[in-house]
Amino acid sequence: MTRISLDQAQTIVSGALAEARALKLKPISVAVLDAGGHLIAFAREDGSSNLRPQIATAKASGALALGVSSRTIGEMAVERPTFITAAAGLNPAGIVPAAGGVLVRGSDGAVIGAVGVTGDTSDNDELAALAGIKAAGLSA
Fold this sequence. Notes:
Protein name: GlcG protein
Largest sheet: 4 strands, antiparallel
Number of strands: 4
Pfam families: HbpS-like
Distance between the termini: 14 Å
InterPro entries: GlcG_carb_metab_protein (IPR052517), PduO/GlcC-like (IPR005624), PduO/GlcC-like_sf (IPR038084)
Low-confidence stretches: none
CATH class: Alpha Beta
Shape: globular
CATH topology: Beta-Lactamase
């Protein structure tokens, strides 16, 4: 598999939203990007604050840009803050160095996109992202 289909992207969004509701999280926003960083699917729950679409997209885009989860980017930011700040400025969608941005891999293990979730704690955002990926039959 070399790409995320629209159906898979919508399933990721639905799966992440379902997990958020099951865990009684605050309202979340979910962005699914293809491997080139293009938005495929997005949802913003009622009550989400107005910057959440950009944050979700930046979590996913940053993961794609650096080839690691946004959780790992957060860890990198502690050790190399200047690098992450510079990379965020170079990446058109930005980079958010906090958990919730997860790479999506196809059946062959290749990165085919990323999902970004924001709205609750970063750890909970990541749980929702992982649930969405699993719901689509893909892996992180």
